[in-house]
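Work Package 3 (structural annotation) set out to generate three-dimensional models for the target panel prioritized at the project kickoff. During this period the team completed the workflow that converts sequence records into discrete structure tokens, so that structures can be stored uniformly alongside our sequence database. As a representative example, we reproduce one entry of 533 residues exactly as it appears in the project archive.
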Amino acid sequence: MEIKTIKQVINSGDTSLGIEFGSTRIKAILIGPNHTPLAAGSYDWENQFHDGVWTYSLDAISHGLQGCYRKLKEDVLSQYSIELKTFGSIGISGMMHGYMVFDKNDKLLTPFRTWRNTNTFNACERLVQLFGYPIPHRWSIAHLYQAILDAEEHVPDISFITTLAGYVHWQLTGEKVLGICDASGMFPIDIGTKHFDQRMMDQFDLLVSDKALAWQLSDILPTILLAGDKAGSLTNGGAKLLDPSGSLEPGIPFCPPEGDAGTGMVATNSIARRSGNVSAGTSMFLMAVLEEELKKVHSEIDLLTTPVGDLVAMVHANNGCGDIDAWLKIFSELLDSLEINISKSELYDTLYYLALAADSDCGGLLSYNYISGESITGMKKGSPLFVRTSEAKFSLANFMRMQLYSALTTLRIGFDILCDDENVELDRLYGHGGFFKTEKVGQTIMAAALHTPVSVLETASEGGPWGMALLAAYMRERNSEESLESYLNRIVFSDLKDNTINPDSEDVKGFERYLQLYKSGLPLEYMASELSV
């Protein structure tokens, strides 16, 4: 597309914008009629651990939103010498689950509790027994019921509960709605009706009836929408919130806000049955679109939906690349102290490539990347741990492969349940996220860890924000008869190339040895997590 044409596209609003709130970065992707990125903006942020809770403040959310959008505007101005004023459609996505509750005056009642909080063991145990359905520790209903069990003062005043994406969408449009994939991380979905499960809502209301609450669950949950539905438009206040400079015009239509699981499915074209994808970043999650319901309730497996409401099994590891980032920060500090200047991407690439030259089992080195608790292994709290014996082969290459293995091992434990206990089969498995930025390394390691071929699309580095932009484009462009699956296959992915790496037999054997060592060493991690420093 010629520069002049792109200017016309942007000025006329023949574009779609996706903004995703990730755990460490907020990113915006602008796409045009051919659905490839035209411009991008990002804003780095970090959660805070206050009073035993992982959280982001409302100020951090608004500042991050504005900072991300400002960078997008700067990118457009730099590339095309024009000022952003409008879009054809916008979509907001974010890290799923968590707990944001508001009173009748729209006041936040307690600090936002993110997906990273795992203090809901008692609530989950009781809800699983009540529903006969897996309720993960990070789900909104688990946090709500735990607050009720703990007799928290704010509970009677709750008027609305939502997720991060739902909150931002509400601030921009005034609409208290949620896409079905994000909603499925709040409370179980009835796949037939595409709404929150009425039987389970009735069971919950009966469970807490002795609390004499002024609300029932259906009163406080957001309205569910499907991909393709219209979800409001940018208000005057929303335009000023997103762009304080006043350049952005109100009235832009929004698609339903979604969770990062749903945008990952879209970005990898993994919404059809028997398709799967792995989102590999601060957390790790693998999603398999199911042909039928699972035979058993597994506490290690979440049941979510695609953005159109089909059932998905998710293996979610709270801890992914966070500990890798922490170690690489240490290496960066060393280089800084030696006055050696290399870019962050060059440092990551150098160390990641070293992992390919390591012993396939990491030479006996062992690491637990648990910055926070991990429900799959029953870890209530996190404490990153590196262990080696005097006989271990302690080299930088082995250390780096160990870090990459550690990021995937908990995911593998959950994946084994899907494969061995439920006989779930996938036609393809796509990867996306920061783990795959260094060419071939993340794919090679994941193929070994999951004993499965792993494919990466040429757009893999764009990730969730691009998937959210595609959902916004689908709402704007689709005709009423075309499904999301058909739209993606026909319009977006027909010409995109992918790269597939098959598992190497020696790497698979090496990871199996590491996995057994990892499982046998879990008591060490349990003890470490109980330390108080």
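The mean pLDDT is 93.
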